[in-house]
Amino acid sequence: MIIENGNVFLPNHCFQQINVVVDGERIYEITSRSSQTGETVLDAKDCYVVPGFVDIHIHGAAGSDFCDGTQSGLLKIADYLGSQGVTSFCGTSMALDEASLGRIFSEAKVFIDREHQGHAVMRGINMEGPFFSPARKGAHREDAFIAPDKEMFLRLNALSGNNILLVDVAPETEGAEAFIHEVSRHSTVSVAHTDAGYQCAERAFSAGASHVTHLFNAMPMFNHRNPGVIGAASDYAAYVEVISDGIHLHPSVVRAVFRWFGEERVCLISDSMRACGMPDGIYSLGGQNVTIEGGKATLADGTIAGSTLCLADCFRRAVGFGVPLEGALRAAAENPARAVGLFGEVGSLDRGKRADILVLNRDLSLKAVIIGGKTKTKGDTSPSRIK
């Protein structure tokens, strides 16, 4: 297959009108040559051709949750994400007991090991909890919180098939620094749900943490005399997550984060729960009821409980907030892939990488989604020539 006439987002973060050749599941070349007789053609004239999006922090969608721990539920999430242009994701857990997490991660291993076509690929697990501070619990259940436990992590990682790509920890909890030092050899460690000050967070980054979960949310406010986790992240973090749904952060803050940290350090995430893609109503997250009104998810006490937007919508909103298109694309594809060690396979349109490709109209709506070299389009799933 050849994708012709599109404005291709190249690995140097610039657009160029050039063609993309796909051979099987892989990108074969980026070329100026035209299609040849008999070659399947996707005409991307007046469109953007960009990498498939990578969501490293998603709890659920389409009525299902990663923590349901069922193959059918994981498939529903993957199907929905693929239809929206999210081609890779990390299933994200909640603060639960080890037995529950073991069951969930074992099911995740089965799903990851299966060969699926036509939907998003679950690349691994984001272990969000239970190593958190009660002072910043967010939508997690405090009764599940425990001190960081390396042996528990190793047991769960083994059950997952060594697929925990990201693990979250509050650095002020007992034993956190030793935990970070050891576990960062296995997974990316993220500072999260924490009441830590600047120096405590600085020690966490020195110990091996490199990531910050949903910046500004579930952590102390940035203050010019007490910069806290956000200040330490500015100095030391490789990547920070941003939920650009317009609810978790004001649009001005989203713009400011990109200017402050640089577009090479920001990861757009959805943090979506099972109500993503669903109507308003009552849903559940981590064993607690969540009310969705006007797309906003809250617990009974008013605490925001994840988002109801998929990453593709968060990307479009970020651009609508004033983030440059090129920066938003890096934050939705390349940066998250780099943050959890997936960039060798996905996240950019490089020769040899998996052919997870989006064709976006000028208004950033989807024209086509290509997952592993297979094309999906709105209203037409198997064309030989798409115009």
Automatic annotation (TrEMBL):
This is N-acetylglucosamine-6-phosphate deacetylase. The keyword Metal-binding applies. Substrate binds at residues 139, 217-218, 225, 248, 304-306. Residues 48-375 form the Amidohydrolase-related domain. Keywords: Carbohydrate metabolism, Hydrolase, Metal-binding. GO terms for biological process: N-acetylglucosamine catabolic process. NCBIfam families: nagA. Its cofactor is a divalent metal cation. Zn(2+) binds at residues 128, 193, 214. It comes from Anaerobacterium chartisolvens. InterPro entries: Amidohydro-rel, GlcNAc_6-P_deAcase, Metal-dep_hydrolase_composite, Metal_Hydrolase. Binds 1 divalent metal cation per subunit. Belongs to the metallo-dependent hydrolases superfamily. NagA family. GO terms for molecular function: metal ion binding; N-acetylglucosamine-6-phosphate deacetylase activity. The active site is at residue 271. PANTHER family: N-ACETYLGLUCOSAMINE-6-PHOSPHATE DEACETYLASE (PTHR11113:SF14).
